[in-house]
Design goal:
187 residues; mainly alpha; Hypothetical protein af1432; 12 helices; 64% helix; globular; hydrolase; HD_domain; HDIG_dom; HD family phosphohydrolase
Length: 187
């Protein structure tokens, strides 16, 4: 059966026991939904890609060449189907290890969107007002500081420009998306 957003949320709870991983999946979902609206793409499809992209993380964190690919096995075992586009984007978000090349708007948006959540989250943690009042220009300054949130891939975030979206606009969209769920993510 074609997976629903409700079922995807259930699977995130089932397969991602670490609360931080659950939060990251939710952040990625809202960022991808916001990007889909901006780019006039399928919001449900993009939201599912964001929500499910790390479903296998706790099973593959020691075997990165399977990260993104193992999710397809999980979904099959759960009798859940996703579109080919979503399956490709999930596998390609870890292109460096899976060697599945990013090609589509969704592929680039997922890799950039899930990466930017880490940058935003790290910046929010150091601000007294957390996400409230965060500006894209301030986030861009943190982006340029390679020592800040050093594990966040600047290259993947910059790849958002390959689908015709300026980085400053991307930051603005992503911040607003995460602000919409501040109570859920503790910021």
């Amino acid at each position: 059966m074609q997976i629903t957003t409700e079922k995807a949320h259930e699977l995130v709870q089932k397969y991602l026991k670490d609360k931080n991983n659950q939060i990251h999946s939710r952040e990625s979902e809202v960022v991808l939904r916001a990007l889909s609206r901006e780019l006039k793409e399928d919001e449900e499809m993009w939201g599912l890609a964001g929500l499910l992209h790390d479903l296998d993380w706790e099973q593959t964190s020691e075997n990165w060449n399977q990260h993104g690919i193992k999710t397809m096995d999980i979904l099959k075992n759960e009798d859940c189907e996703i579109s080919k586009e979503v399956a490709h984007a999930i596998s390609a978000h870890n292109e460096k290890h899976t060697e599945i090349v990013r090609e589509s708007k969704l592929d680039y948006a997922l890799a950039a969107g899930e990466s930017v959540t880490g940058l935003i989250y790290a910046y929010a943690l150091m601000r007294p007002e957390k996400l409230e009042g965060m500006k894209a220009s301030s986030l861009n300054k943190k982006f340029k500081d390679k020592k800040f949130a050093a594990n966040v891939s600047r290259d993947l975030i910059s790849d958002i420009e390959k689908i015709g979206l300026e980085k400053s606009k991307f930051f603005e969209i992503s911040i607003k998306a995460m602000q919409s769920i501040t109570s859920e993510i503790g910021l």
